[in-house]
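Quiz preparation item.
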């Protein structure tokens, strides 16, 4: 796998910085996330990427959804540019919760109705409500 391109690295960095600024994570998490992305591209398809990484210090999974104003190159196998990025931070524990969180996000971000809504909505609160309601059991 090649080195993740600069636009994708910057998108991950920017989303991570929001979490750092909120006090949710320390700055070292961003570099760890970028290192994980360098091992295997997390492009999901249809212009969506789910960069994720596991961290021993986390008690539970959490993430941040970013809808990009300008789609970026994410080294996608199909060449499609990415406009939706869901950065997911997972605990390192082997209890399966992290796989469940990743599977839930990936499953929802494959649904055309959810994708259309996320691309149509304008306000951050609306995006949050859509992603939360679409991932609830």
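Solution:
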């Amino acid at each position: 796998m090649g080195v993740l391109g600069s636009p994708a690295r910057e998108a991950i960095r920017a989303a991570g910085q929001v979490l750092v600024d909120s006090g949710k994570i320390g700055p070292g998490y961003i570099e760890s996330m970028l290192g994980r992305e360098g091992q295997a591209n997390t492009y999901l398809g249809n212009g969506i990427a789910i960069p994720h990484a596991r961290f021993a210090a986390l008690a539970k999974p959490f993430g941040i959804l970013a809808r990009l104003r300008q789609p970026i190159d994410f080294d996608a196998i199909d060449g499609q540019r990415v406009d939706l990025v869901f950065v997911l931070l997972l605990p390192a524990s082997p209890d399966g919760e992290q796989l469940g969180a990743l599977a839930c996000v990936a499953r929802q971000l494959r649904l055309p109705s959810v994708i259309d809504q996320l691309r149509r909505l304008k306000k951050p609160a609306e995006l949050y409500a859509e992603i939360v309601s679409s991932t609830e059991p």
